[in-house]
Amino acid sequence: MRGRPFPFLRRLPALLSCLLLLTALPVFAVQQPAVSDGMPGYQHTAWRVGQGAPGDIWDIVQDRQGMLWLATGSGLYRFDGRRFERQAAPAGTRFPSTNMVTLGLDGGDGGLWIGYFQAGISQFTQERLRSFGRPQGVPVGVVPRFAHDRNGRLWAAVNGGLRWFDGHRWQEPPASFGLPQRRVQWVLQDRHGTFWVLADLQIWRRPPGAARFEATGIAVSQMASLVESPRGEVWLADRVRGTSPLANAHGLLPAEEREARRLPGLVASRLQFTADGALWATLSPHGGVARVTFDGQQAVRMERFDAAQGLTATSAVPVLADREGNIWVGTNLGLNRFRAHSVQTLSVGPTDPYRSLVRASDGRVYGYGEDLKLFDLRRPLLGGSAAQLQAAARQAPTPAWQFDWINLARTVSGHTTLIPLPAPFTGQPLHALLFADADQAWACAGERAVLHYTDNRWRRETRLPEQACSSLARTDDGALLLGYADGTLRRLHGGTVNTFGATEGLSVGPVTALLQHKDLLLVAGEAGLAARFGNGRFLPVRTDMAGMLEGITGMVADANGLLWLNGSRGLVRLQVATLRSALRNDQAIAPRLFDAVDGMPGIALQSGPIPTAVLAADGLLWLATNQGLAWLDTRQSHINTMAPGVRIGDVLYGSTQAPLQEGLRLPAGTTQLQIDYVALSLARPERNRYRYRLSGVDDAWQEAGASTRAYYTNLAPGHYRFEVEAANEDGIWSSTPASRSFHIAPTFLQTAWFKLLCVCVVMAALALAVRVRSRQLAALFRARLQERNGERERIARDLHDTLLQGSQGLILRLHAISQSAQTPEPVRTQLESAMLLAERNLAEGRERVNALRDAPFAGRDLASALADVHAEYAGQGTNPLRLTMEGTPPPLQAEAAEEVFLIGREAIRNALRHAQASAIEVELSYGTRCFLLHVRDDGVGIANDNAGGGHWGMQGMRERAQRLGAELQLWTRPGLGTEVALSVPARRLYHRHPPRWRWPWSRTSHD
């Protein structure tokens, strides 16, 4: 024992070290959230290699239109939600490499920045590609990240150094920045103005307003990355130490806090926060994708999703939250989308095949199975176990109604009491139930019974027919609604029963659900849905998708005026205002359907006496489906308010397919077109709806449904403008339509020149036909005129040979008798008087015969011919003639001129013979539009207007004028003389002037 210290003293330093370590453990503790496989709150969709998707996806960005762009090891791809399309370089250019690792949005013209594995940087637009390598300032190495600082300057993290773009080339920051120029792997500009750089395996930052970067002293691993959360915190993904917060609005977090909030199990390649505060990460080097949820600053749960759960591959790098809330993850074997479910399935609860819901009088909703064990479904309890939900139900403050198919049950303070139906209905099946409040219930049982349970006993409702109903509901004013299997509806209020059927427009088949919401009454049946506003008729509700409103067994209206219908196709949402407008205008509606993609575990239960949709007081809508109970939070909108953009793709004409660019000219002869388009809404692309129109063809928008292709036939050449609009799955339409103008060139047969040529040919043919016809008519007229002249000559010969010669012989005989000595003097005198009259008649007859033989006008000048008439009949020195003429006589048509001459001659002869005139005036006027002839005398005039109808020849003058198309007028007064006026249209008298040019087949002479 000598010289040896006490054992306790020898161990004291070790004990002190252990005590110090135990004291420091809470400070340096890290977060270890509960880990589970799968993401039940999200719908996963995969596009795999071999199904059109590219492999080796290294980065994903979304442009301003909503299109996804993918940087892959095989080039640049774009994805519109339906189709992957490899993007070629603009004409005349080529990408430096197909191994692209990074993408960034250009803040200027909407293009892309592309970072390559070992080939520099490119700036890409649809029309232009600019590439930058070592000569343009880009060092050799991978380009992991682009970022814009608060001044809009573009920075690039390159393994060979940090660079910024001056508009022409990439510049190296000056040494005064204090930043190492090697192993630069990330850049980030946060919302507080700090610019972060990961360089030389350390974290550097430049605070707002500072000129230099400062080292934080925090080391990082190779290929680390940064991200900013919605709360403004900067998080670090380190491939050695895991994921941890780095800084907030106040600067770097203390080392103790960084360590306490570190997630060592989350070793990530990329990080992405979503709007709800959850953190998404792609795990490195394998492990798929993870989602971490927080309660304040504490990570409470980590859900992992890997190849075993359906991820396209276990190696994932890029993760992106798009503007509609979808999460996109790229792997080396395809692309993945995660979309949050609107409908959540109750993971704990009744396990029986048939699960029911009931709403207590205090607004709480309970679920139960065939064992009648209640589960409290209030919002704060949903994360608990089945035992916790059952325990909470046993503490319910109000009674809850249940049923077991032949009995009712009532649970109070955890104790359940069965209530059998009264005799003779005991044991008969229940068809419909209504729990009016905590103490009374209605039931339709058997074939004829409508029963009312109140005051702890059953009463049979005698005011209603003995017919069991299939559905029950109450209205706000306390009326009882009963639907029947024969499709009728009855309303019991007070002592009045109203019946509604086909006569009132109700035709939905067996009634399955009823809802009265304000002035709206909805009746659902196996064949559809009918609605009635106020006291109007029932109207059928039509939808744009067949069968959507069939098999509805539960209907509720929430506080926002939305109607929720649980049916055989899923959960349907309707807006009351939209329904009212559609029924008023007899239009189909486009309701929102929530199906399996939205989280619905099945379809509405189709057999049961109670509704399958119940709204709790806390805003949760509970649904009973054939795959279990589910809920939807009505306090959230569940509406995708992002109006989709539309991209117009290719146009197919003939066998040619090309992008439909603005101002595209299509070849002549194009009559059929096929135009592709797509909405850039990535949430439910299969639910997008479209309408389009083509100017000059469509008078109104053409509803295309879900079709992404428009067809047109029988198109004429000309300018066209194609417009298309799209609506997302929630009916939000594009703010402005996408449009493209194009032109179809005409063939020669469709040009204006050809049409003008056709007009000219037709006009020439008409002119030729008119000319030929005119010649035929002229020849016919000449033939008839020759025939007429020949007939006149024949008549003249006959008259000369018979009547005139006989008259001359008679005159000679009478003359011989008058000269006979035996003739008494009185008789001689009478004979001489008779012979004088006979000679005068003979002279006039010779005149007529001469006129028949040869036209008296015979082509002479009209003025001289009329002067000759006066000279012939007046003699020398008697009845002087004053002849005046205005204008230059044009060439006259012979037949018309002869008619004018004969009218003038008759007028002159009448003046000489009958008017006893001392002077005669003849006036001829050759106007451009008409010819005027005036014959005036100063004689005795005519006693009455019809005096000229006899032997004075006025009737003949009128007939000639009418035949000529002229106008003849007569002015006369007894003792004041007479004036005859003739007006002849120029076209009926004048020869037409020959044209300055002639058709080749025309002749210069006139007929």
Secondary-structure topology with pairs:
Layout: H1 7-24, E1 34-37, E2 42-48, E3 57-62, E4 68-72, E5 75-79, E6 84-86, E7 100-105, E8 112-116, E9 121-124, E10 129-132, E11 145-148, E12 154-158, E13 161-165, E14 170-171, E15 184-189, E16 195-199, E17 202-206, E18 214-219, E19 225-228, E20 234-238, E21 242-248, E22 251-252, H2 255-260, E23 268-273, E24 279-283, E25 289-295, E26 298-305, E27 316-321, E28 327-331, E29 334-340, E30 343-345, E31 356-359, E32 365-368, E33 375-376, H3 386-394, E34 400-403, E35 407-412, E36 415-420, E37 430-435, E38 441-445, E39 449-454, E40 457-460, E41 471-474, E42 480-483, E43 489-493, E44 496-500, E45 511-517, E46 520-525, E47 528-533, E48 539-540, E49 554-557, E50 562-567, E51 570-575, H4 576-584, E52 592-594, E53 613-615, E54 620-625, E55 628-633, E56 646-653, E57 656-659, E58 664-666, E59 673-679, E60 689-694, E61 702-705, E62 709-712, E63 718-727, E64 738-744, H5 752-818, H6 825-853, H7 862-874, E65 881-886, H8 894-914, E66 920-926, E67 930-937, H9 954-964, E68 967-972, E69 978-985, H10 986-989
Parallel strand pairs: 1-26, 58-64, 65-66
Antiparallel strand pairs: 2-29, 3-4, 4-5, 5-6, 7-8, 8-9, 9-10, 11-12, 12-13, 13-14, 15-16, 16-17, 17-18, 19-20, 20-21, 21-22, 23-24, 24-25, 25-26, 27-28, 28-29, 30-55, 31-32, 32-33, 34-35, 35-36, 37-38, 38-39, 39-40, 41-42, 42-43, 43-44, 45-46, 46-47, 47-48, 49-50, 50-51, 51-52, 53-54, 54-55, ...
Helix pairs in contact: 5-6, 7-8, 8-9
